[in-house]
Amino acid sequence: MSSDIDIYTEHFGLRERPFNLVPDPAFLYWGPAHKRAYAILEYGIMTRAPITLLTGEVGAGKTTLLQHLLRSIREEVRVGLISNAHGNPNELLRWVLHALDQPSEADQSYIDLFSQFEAFLLEEYAAGRRVVLIFDEAQNLGRAALEELRMYTNINSGKDELLQLILVGQPELREIVRRPDMTQFAQRVASGFHLSAMTEEVVAKYIGHRVALAGGTEDLFSPGACRAIYEATGGVPRLVNQLCDLSLVYAFTSEDSLVTAATVQDVLGDGVFFGGGLSAEPLRVVNPDKRTSTTH
Predict the structure, then answer these.
(1) Which of 125, 169, 275, 293 is 20 to 30 Å from 114 at the Cα level?
(2) What confidence score (pLDDT) does residue 156 get?
(3) CA 86, CA 105: separation in Å to the nearest integer?
(4) Contact 220/245 with Cβ under 8 angstroms?
């Protein structure tokens, strides 16, 4: 076992850290919201939807869902993943071609690049493959780039569309699409889903699920600890992971065999958990075992 995870794994009988902050599809917990979000992504691909939207707050689990989707894509679907694309239409098209492993020369004009892109889509269609472009952090594209993408979806062969788009981003992406001057774009959106934060019940199941996958027991975090973690994080998966990881470190340093509400309160009280800027208000944590509350 590598030294970077030995800080508490052996103490709790874990094979690995259950709350690694890097998105890992192997640890994906299928809560109700994530099941529905993934179903919408699959629905968009299977029905050849022109545009599918997936939005959610930072850390809601969108990227993890995307990674799972990419692992599950069948051979007849050619996927290009573009993250944080920006620039004018010429540069956007270069991002797209690069994601599809297609060359683009520095001196090529927009017309040349578009002709190359169109020819590629026709070739894939003739080979029995569909092309899906996935844009992560799509809220950064802006109105002009989104309109450019809408034009891409107009490329067709007879009645068959050659390109599908999946746009993933933060809540402001939905706000952009709903603007009055984006009506044409919105009409191409076949379906969309907003991935909300987890409920208190789901947070407890999520924590137990990840601990069990890492080789531990599901009751490593007490019910009081799970409630405290939910209240401090608002149920945002990335923040839950951060606070759980820190709580395991604190339980280890205290030589405790499990994480309790008091453990979580110690983490919060020492100010080592920043909460991703979740709230500027003091964090109020309830210990259900003692029926008391503590404000940090």
Answers:
(1) 169
(2) 83
(3) 18
(4) no
258 CB-side CA count, 13 A: 15
**What confidence score (pLDDT) does residue 278 get?**
52
269 Cβ partners below 8 Å, 6+ apart? 294, 296
Which H or E run includes 134? Answer: strand 130-136
Closest CA to 15 of 207, 216, 220: 216
Is the per-residue pLDDT at 277 higher than 80? no
289 touches 280 (CB < 8 A): no
Query: Phi and psi of 198, rounded to 5°?
Result: -75, 150
State yes or no: pLDDT of 270 exceeds 80.
yes
Tokens of 175: 């706000």
* Beta carbons within 8 Å of 126's beta carbon, 6+ residues apart: none
Q: Which of 4-8, 164-168, 223-227 has the lowest mean pLDDT?
A: 4-8
Assign 293 a pLDDT band (cuts: 50, 70, 90): very low
| Token reading at 56 | 């959610």
| Structural domains for the chain | 32-195 (3.40.50.300), 198-295 (1.10.8.60)
Token output for 15:
């094979």
CA distance 265 to 47: 48
Residue 35 CB coordination number (10 Å): 10
Cα–Cα nearest to 65, from 90, 13, 30, 113: 30
Query: Containing H/E element for 89?
Result: helix 89-99
- CA–CA gap between residue 215 and residue 199 (Å, rounded): 25
227 in the Ramachandran plot: left (φ > 0), alpha (ψ -120 to 50) or beta?
alpha
* Secondary structure element (H or E) that encloses residue 244, with its range: helix 237-253
First to last CA, the chain: 36
Banded model confidence at residue 4, pLDDT cuts 50, 70, 90: very low
